[in-house]
Amino acid sequence: MATVHEWTGLEALALRKALRLSVRRYSEHLGIAVNTISNWEKYREKRRPNTESQAILDTALARSDAATHLRFETELAKLSEGEVGRLAGETARRVTIPRPRAWEYESWTDDLERAVVALSHQNFAFADDLLRRWSSSYQPSELDERGTYLLARSVALQGDLKRDQGAVVGPLSAQRCYANARSLYTELGIPRRVAQLDLSLAVVTEMSGALETAARQYEDLAIDERLSPRDRARARLWVGTALSKDGNHDYAVRVMEEAIREFEGLAEQDDWSVAQQKLALAHRGAGNLDAALRLIDVARSTGITDAPVQRVRLDTAYGHILLSDRATLDDGLRVLDDAAKRAAQYGLTHQLRSITDIRRTADGPTSPSPR
């Protein structure tokens, strides 16, 4: 999700356009005077809202849905490009390379919004069609800044798709997509996006089994000021995930509990719920089954998202914990069977492999934990 370190009139205008509101409706939405908003938009990057207005804008953006966030990023890239073009002179921007036309950019943006929704429901085939429609149509050299931004966003989403499908490393993998998207954002000079891709690459490192390396990468990103507080808290949580998978369960519990406190302070309910799931697995690994069962119940009852991939992760974690006690072994196998069916239904290959590994080592003292 998008974050803004300091709002100017330019970002405020981009948010209004992303929300598809008139100036008056935007004024009512924010609780800020119409004249104030008009001045922001008149002076754009030269006008910085006061501290109270900065907080109001932060809240308005944070409460927006994923499609609005994507429109905000696109509008901001478009407006920023317009400012550069105005200052540098439009003549300098006229080149002979054919560019996508304005309506194509709008269609591209709409398709990215649809792809985000499709990915949230694990409709991989449809999302892949939407993303390939554009990423295969243009080379970076054919695009201006707005087009390069849309291409980077498309390639990053393709990385998310391949990660969820379990294609982690290799020439046609999440790792390759994330690395390509990172290069494009570096070229555009968007450090926050570069750091987010660093975080995604660390996830891929963890999923490929390089747990110690992943933990070090997460530790660096947990204090990286380029990331939002939410992303830094996620990095801290994933330090604990990598530690727990590597058998350092007690240390993992302490790290995860710190991340949970950060999510509480940020009022990030869904992340907090996911953290309870991962903390439950760390307690399972440490042999604290009562705590593990209590925490997985909390995670299963408080999660906001009903995305299939998260449901599979929750059920896999629950089954994993149940397998740790002979008295609940049969219940655990049944839960894992249901999770495997759902994973197969949605093509969640990585989760299927995790379930298979857990079943194979059910009688052992330690078994791999699902992401």
Overall description:
The protein has 371 residues and is mainly alpha-helical. The protein has a domain at 1-65: 434 Repressor (Amino-terminal Domain). Helix content is 73%, strand content 0%. It is built from 18 helices and no strands. Helix 1 (9-19) crosses helix 3, helix 15 packs antiparallel against helix 16 and helix 16 runs parallel beside helix 18. The protein is globular. The relative contact order is 0.06. Residues 86-97 have low confidence and may be disordered.
Concise synopsis of the structure shown:
The protein has 18 helices and no strands. The protein is mainly alpha-helical and 371 residues long. The protein has a domain at 1-65: 434 Repressor (Amino-terminal Domain) (Orthogonal Bundle).
Supply the key terms.
371 residues, mainly alpha, 434 Repressor (Amino-terminal Domain), 18 helices
CATH class type of the domain at 1-65: Mainly Alpha
Structure classification: mainly alpha
Q: If you consult CATH, what is the topology of the domain at 1-65? A: 434 Repressor (Amino-terminal Domain)
What is the averaged pLDDT score? 88
Number of strands: 0
Q: What is the radius of gyration computed over CA atoms, rounded to a whole number of angstroms?
A: 22 Å
Number of helices: 18
**What is the H/E string?**
HHHHHHHHHHHHHHHHHH
Largest sheet: none
SS strand fraction: under 5%
Q: Quick one: overall form?
A: globular
Q: What separation lies between the terminal Cα atoms?
A: 21 Å
CATH architectural type of the domain at 1-65? Orthogonal Bundle
Estimate the helix proportion, in percent. Answer: over 70%
Low-confidence runs: 86-97
